[in-house]
Amino acid sequence: MEITAKAFDYNTGVVTRKQFDDHMTLYKGYVSKTNEIANTLVTNPELASANATQSHYRGLKRGQTYALDGVILHELYFENLGSTTVPVGKKTQDLMDRFFGGVDKWKADFIACATSARGWCVLAYEQRTRQCTNFLLDSHHDGQVMLAYPLIVLDMYEHAYFLDYGTDKAAYINRFISQIPWDAVERRALAVM
Q1: Segment 53-72, tens digit of pLDDT
Q2: Could you read off the pLDDT of 131-180 as tens digits, one per residue?
């Protein structure tokens, strides 16, 4: 089954329209590659030559998780881009208080995590330990934790901010945090709990 790219309106105070449009082009490329890989896994997976060192099948399976995670993470990220914010919701506030000691302490940890990330910074509720944690992913499929449900997703690849912020990661991170649409985070928090 093919997936289709979701439509996201430009309504962000975090990046310019050009940065957003270029990023959407990249996202649509991940959608296309996800479909291409899925099709190849059905039509020509070369199962007989599969091995752990190097094989057509291994490459497809690694590409599959990279591309699909690229789609999912970008969709969550685009939903986190805002231009105005509503107050932090009750469930989200409870999670921030319980696991970080408040929103300000979460922000400090999130900023440190995002600054350290090469790919993504994700606040997630991890269902095994039943804790909220800021996770660092160096790529779409390197660093994620199974059963971790994303609440806030920030793209830290340079393509996400470089046109607008250059090397000033801190300005991008702080602008993102100041514009989080907390209603989207609250919906995610309520869905997982």
Answers
A1: 999 999 999 999 999 999 99
A2: 999 999 998 888 788 889 999 999 999 999 999 999 999 999 999 999 99
Whose CA is closest to 92, among 193, 179, 185?
A: 185
DSSP symbol at 88: P
First-residue to last-residue Cα distance in the chain: 30
34 close to 3: Cβ distance less than 8 angstroms: yes
Q: Measuring CA to CA, which residue among 161, 132, 162, 160 is closest to residue 148?
A: 132
| Residue 185 CB neighbours (<10 A) | 24
Distance, CA of 32 to CA of 34 (rounded, Å): 5
- Output DSSP code: residue 53: S
How far apart are alpha carbons 125 and 112 in whole angstroms?
18
3-state SS class at 148: strand
